[in-house]
């Protein structure tokens, strides 16, 4: 009987923990030595690169058109040469400032020209700096909607508009997730429900609304931006949250010291992320503008009841 | 054997109770998160004010959708040039169609009372400080509050708290609320044209 109780406790602990992840908790402070010169580090892949796996990249808060954004775009293309990812998720703030035709070129098409030429698809979400009509832009694949779902392999992706989470969107999200039988469910949007950055930090009022839905319907991973840093949050109620908001803007030194939320953080340079999904494992690698690996690990999917 | 013929009034009554329960259950299912509960409506006059506001906004949407037909068609995979042409045409056409539009056309006194009270309730308490901070941290450089003219496209847009959106009168997808400092504005989602605004709406 006692053994049975212990087994039950273990099972509950496993369910509560949700996932296992193999990556240490750590904060990388300050400047990584990055400069605005051309990136020079060699490509170092930590991902398994398995046959038939689903591969994608993540960028956030990109749309400045700066030389740093261009450098990051070049580094992404460099990594793609060894890790051919199929598509890129955008965490919003795709274009800062104006949105005239020349801005689309300067702040998006220019920095990612190589990826676009290689037919890499971009799936965007909207941030607080984005105009509504970006949903119609040919390269953002939003199909005219500011929240939408698409599926790749065993993974369902939900792009949300966290700038305007009205009842219609909440109801849509709830009903779509309820009928979704995908192995993995990934949500991405701009404002982070959890963040250790000083500038914005956790958006608790958004969390109050979306987190119960994520928990109820087995969302595995949540990707966000808004804070111009990298942060992997310690699992919250079994869900993995990432802040990836330094794809074109950087807020050096913005991560709070010894935040209880942080599993790993980096505010020394801009970055992008790579993901590889193979069966029950989702591998990730965060890479700086100069090509340094700033975080990596693997999330093991929890069993769904 | 006694054959009982059901009283029609009784049948209607029972049906109404069942229907009312079903509606209650359906509503409860949609809003089972207490944070998304609608704001309490305290009087029939307030209910009428909300309905009237929502109807005026619907009238605007009818007008803008008619005007929209004159703008170039916008596909779901448009070029930046097509997006720009669509937005500028829609903006100009809306301005012409609403010549003489003034502040208070949509935010009439009766609905502003309800909205002010809702905002006051929602922004009360220390736990709501974050919502207030979100509204006030938005950078508003270049934004001029002028009915029938666009919100500057280079300016940031405030995040509208989900819990507040659930409490304000519901809007069709073509129209959105937005904070500009302590002011609440109504904008056309696609053209960014300011339809109306409430000065000092935040408590």
In short:
The complex is a heterodimer of chains A (305) and B (203). With 305 residues, chain A is α/β, with parallel strands linked by helices. Chain A is 23% helix and 24% strand.
Shape call of chain B: globular
Helix content of chain B: 40-55%
Question: What's the number of extended β-strand segments of chain B?
Answer: 3
Beta-strand portion of chain B reads: 5-15%
> Can you write the helix and strand succession of chain A as a string?
HEEHEHHEEEHEHEEEEEEE
Q: What do you see in this structure?
A:
The complex is a heterodimer of chains A (305) and B (203). Mean pLDDT of chain A is 90; it is low at 1-20 and 30-39. Helices cover 23% and strands 24% of the residues of chain A. The two termini of chain A are 24 Å apart. Chain A has 6 helices and 14 strands. Chain B contains 6 helices and 3 strands. A 3-stranded antiparallel sheet of chain B has the order 1-2-3, with no helix packed on it. The chains are: A alpha/beta (305), B mainly alpha (203).
């Amino acid at each position: 009987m006692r053994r049975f109780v212990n087994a039950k406790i273990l099972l509950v602990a496993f369910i509560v923990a949700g996932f296992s992840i193999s990556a240490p908790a750590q904060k990388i402070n300050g400047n990584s030595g990055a400069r605005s010169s051309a990136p020079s580090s060699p490509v170092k892949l930590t991902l398994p690169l398995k046959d038939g796996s689903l591969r994608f990249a993540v960028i956030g808060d990109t749309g400045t058109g700066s030389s740093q954004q261009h450098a990051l775009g070049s580094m992404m293309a460099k990594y793609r040469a060894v890790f051919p990812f199929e598509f890129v998720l955008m965490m919003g703030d795709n274009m800062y400032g104006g949105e005239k035709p020349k801005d689309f070129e300067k702040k998006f098409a220019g920095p990612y020209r190589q990826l676009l030429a290689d037919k890499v698809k971009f799936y965007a979400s909207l941030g607080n700096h984005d105009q509504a009509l970006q949903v119609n832009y040919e390269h953002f694949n939003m199909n005219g909607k500011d929240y939408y779902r698409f599926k790749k392999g065993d993974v369902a992706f939900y792009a949300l508009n966290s700038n305007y989470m009205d009842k219609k969107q909440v109801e849509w999200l709830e009903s779509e997730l309820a009928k979704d039988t995908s192995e993995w469910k990934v949500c991405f949007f701009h404002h982070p429900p959890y963040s250790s950055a000083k500038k914005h930090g956790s958006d608790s009022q958004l969390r109050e609304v979306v987190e119960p839905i994520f928990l109820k319907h087995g969302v595995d991973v949540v990707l966000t931006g808004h804070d111009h840093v990298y942060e992997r949050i310690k699992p919250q109620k079994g869900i993995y949250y990432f802040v990836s908001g330094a794809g074109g803007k950087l807020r050096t030194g913005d991560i709070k010291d010894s935040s209880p939320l942080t599993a790993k953080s980096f505010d020394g340079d801009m970055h992008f992320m790579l993901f590889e999904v193979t069966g029950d494992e989702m591998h990730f690698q965060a890479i700086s503008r100069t090509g340094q690996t700033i975080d990596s690990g693997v999330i093991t999917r929890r069993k769904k009841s | 054997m006694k054959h009982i013929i059901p009283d029609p009034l009784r049948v209607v009554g029972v049906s109404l109770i069942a229907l009312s329960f079903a509606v209650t259950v359906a509503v409860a299912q949609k809003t089972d998160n207490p944070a998304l509960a609608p704001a309490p409506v305290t009087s029939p006059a307030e209910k009428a004010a909300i309905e009237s506001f929502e109807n005026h906004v619907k009238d605007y949407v009818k007008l803008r959708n008619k005007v929209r037909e004159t703008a170039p068609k916008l596909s779901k995979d448009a070029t930046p040039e097509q997006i720009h042409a669509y937005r500028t045409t829609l903006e100009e056409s809306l301005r012409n169609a609403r010549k003489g539009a003034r502040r208070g056309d949509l935010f009439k006194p009766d609905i502003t009372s309800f909205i002010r009270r809702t905002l006051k309730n929602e922004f009360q308490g220390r736990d709501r400080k974050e919502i207030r901070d979100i509204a006030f941290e938005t950078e508003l450089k270049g934004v001029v509050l002028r009915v029938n003219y666009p919100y500057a496209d280079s300016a940031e847009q405030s995040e509208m708290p989900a819990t507040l959106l659930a409490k304000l009168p519901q809007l069709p997808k073509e129209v959105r609320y937005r904070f500009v400092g302590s002011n609440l504005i109504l904008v056309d989602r696609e053209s960014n044209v300011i339809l109306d605004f409430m000065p000092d709406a935040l408590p």
